[in-house]
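Problem: given the chain below (407 residues), write out its structure.
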Amino acid sequence: MLPFPLYLALKYLRPKRSFLSVVTLISVLGVLLGVAILVIVLSVMTGFDIMWREKILSFKPHLTVINRTAGIQEVDALCHAIAAIDGVTGVAAGIESRVLVQHAGHMLAPVVVGTSPDRAADVSRVPEHMVAGTFDLHADRVVIGSDAAAALGAEVGSRLLVYSPLNVLRDDELYLPEEVTVAGIFNLGMRDYDAGFLLTSLDVAGELVGIERGAQALYVMTDDAFRFAEYAERVAAVLPPGHEVKTWREIDSVLFSALSHEKTMMFILLVFITIVAIFCVTNTLIVITVQKTTEIGLLKALGFAPREIMGAFVLHGWLQCLVGTAAGEGVGLLVLHNLRGIVRLLTSFNVHVFPKEIYGLSEIPWSTSVGELVNIALFVIVFCTLSSVVPAWRAARLDPVVALRGE
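Solution.
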């Protein structure tokens, strides 16, 4: 046999003259929409954070060793010392600089990244994302992103002219451009990398920036990118004075900080939308309290305790929120799992909701977890319970004499 408060709450959920109360349905739909929006937006924001990390770690090393005063001089010795550290999977010297590239009347200003051809595959996952040609940095060969190739009108085998930045930095000397051959084209699905980088050998990059010996940095890959603090300490321990280690998190700290703050702000804004929806439950309970004034007075006159009356109305609101929350999370997950199809459908109507040129990514990322869904559900249910207390308290304090005076 059901407890009386639960029995009364279920009884009020279904009116006498119809199968379902329109007022209750509107309340449940309000909570459903609020929860669904919260799930969708937070999952997309989490997906952005995860995808940015994946794209960055597909292109950049986990750790970068630099020397701000003299550059990296003893390249081979340091590479061997770092490679001997437990957990380090790859290490290579590197040079980076902004250059000007010309081909077929088109100009582009990407960042050239030079590294040891034989070690390049150990410190980058770009070889896994080749869409044309091969990942070959030997001699004068280069690898460029798909967007950069499109902007230059280049393809595998094209000859590019790469102009040194020293032409701007040094007025008394003239540096002739380097002629390089496109060996391969990669596509990481991220505009900043697909359009903004050119990979080449350490020798070619050194000639472009005027470094005849040594390198600007050492790129280090580890077996776990998220243990960067631990590995940074291990690498720093074998470095001579004057060298320092930068982690991928430190190098892109502004980006990840922005994503974290944006997700927090979106959560706060969407919480207000959800709270507004929850107030629909409060309004429903107030309406039912007014409608059931006589019945409440009769129950109290028969000896039912105020806490039982109050419990019935709290359960009534809580059940609405429970159904709305469960349905909202289901709808949110349904939308997320069909997100690509929805985007394609909108694109067919010439509605571009996620252009790569603006957002820098080729698709809308999303990711959710059981913990996040549970937290959303607990938040909504707690607020729903609190919003039910006021009308339930009013019903519990109703004077039976006043309630039955009109009968």
